[in-house]
Specification:
binds 2-acetamido-2-deoxy-beta-D-glucopyranose, single chain, about 10% strand, Butyryl-CoA Dehydrogenase, subunit A, domain 3, 8 helices, SUR7/Rim9-like_fungi
Length: about 260
């Protein structure tokens, strides 16, 4: 009886881990209800007009944003208020609900500054490139490379979680051994993948502290980077998968099916 409880525990933990990872993967692939609310990282550009205005004072900032939610992305048609980035694509929102997503691709590179400036009119893109410097947020090759590598680790972690769950259901001593190994490898991959994302998000957040305008009256740049729920899902999935190792191991050592 205790063996059954142990197996059940391990299966539930690896199942929950897999479920969290699936939610992480679907984040921002389209703008329907669930994917829209799950992102690795959110960039709020709402305050950027004020920041720019301080920098080019007394010239006004006009035509920076668009409120047309269906205007194609990355064609200089205007900035959206909020950008959310997932593992496969990013979406840009004019308000809470209305937005448009980029094409999806596996191993999508996280290059926030490139895709955001590509939405601005050419004059604002040039201005932004000149004003926003010396911060990791604008370092697209660094962010792109690390997010790309982290994607593969999270993908392998997801596959391992699924395989641990499936082999654990077989109820065989050898199956539990394989499950234990998949749970170990999977948690290691998730740990490294989630750590990389945590680091690149934390480094991107340095842009939150930038100021523009004259030194005696600085104005916040107005770009606000926040951690998305998908990162917490990745950490939660890691926690569940690593917690499943012990019951899988006990099942493997004690099961006499
Ligand atoms: C973006 O920032 C603006 C002003 O700073 C705030 O009013 C708005 O709620 C923020 N949007 C999101 C989705 O956080
Ligand atoms: C930039 O271009 C937009 C539209 O092309 C125009 O409305 C705006 O005034 C320009 N702003 C500056 C600062 O040149
Ligand atoms: C919004 O953009 C779409 C696509 O470019 C265009 O077809 C539509 O006419 C635009 N709507 C408005 C109100 O400008
Ligand atoms: C968001 O914008 C869309 C299109 O511009 C509009 O239809 C919708 O009512 C807006 N939603 C909110 C909550 O403002
Ligand atoms: C997205 O995909 C469509 C159709 O495959 C293509 O025409 C378009 O250029 C792509 N957009 C971007 C930004 O790559
Ligand atoms: C960039 O930032 C570093 C440390 O934050 C500083 O030492 C360096 O002088 C800055 N470079 C420029 C060009 O502002």
């Amino acid at each position: 009886m205790r063996g059954e409880v142990c197996i059940g525990c391990a299966s539930v933990l690896s199942f929950v881990s897999l479920l969290l990872l699936i939610f992480m993967h679907v984040g921002q692939i389209n703008t329907s209800n669930v994917p829209r609310n799950v992102e690795m990282i959110q960039v709020n550009m709402t305050g950027y007009a004020q920041g720019l205005a301080a920098a080019i004072n007394p010239d006004p900032v006009t035509g920076l944003f668009t409120d047309n939610a269906s205007a194609p992305l990355e064609q200089g048609l205007g900035l959206r208020n909020v950008y959310k980035f997932g593992l496969y694509s990013h979406c840009a929102y004019v308000n809470e609900t209305a937005g448009l997503c980029s094409n999806t691709s596996a191993a999508n590179r996280f290059e926030p500054f490139s895709v955001i400036t590509a939405d601005m009119a050419a004059n604002f893109t040039a201005l932004s490139n000149a004003l926003v410097t010396n911060t990791t947020f604008t370092d697209s090759s660094y962010l792109g490379n690390f997010s790309n590598g982290a994607y593969y680790l999270l993908l392998i972690g997801t596959i391992c979680a699924a395989l641990a769950l499936i082999t654990g259901i077989l109820k065989h001593t050898f199956g539990f051994l394989v499950s234990t190994l998949f749970a170990i490898v999977g948690s290691l991959m998730l740990l490294i993948g989630a750590t990389i994302w945590t680091v690149i998000i934390k480094k991107s957040q340095s842009v939150n502290d930038l100021f523009l305008g004259p030194a005696e009256a600085p104005v916040p740049l107005g770009i606000e980077v926040t951690i998305g729920d998908a990162l917490y899902l990745a950490w939660g999935a890691f926690g569940c998968l690593i917690a499943s190792i012990i019951p899988y191991m006990i099942s493997c050592c004690t099961y006499r099916g």
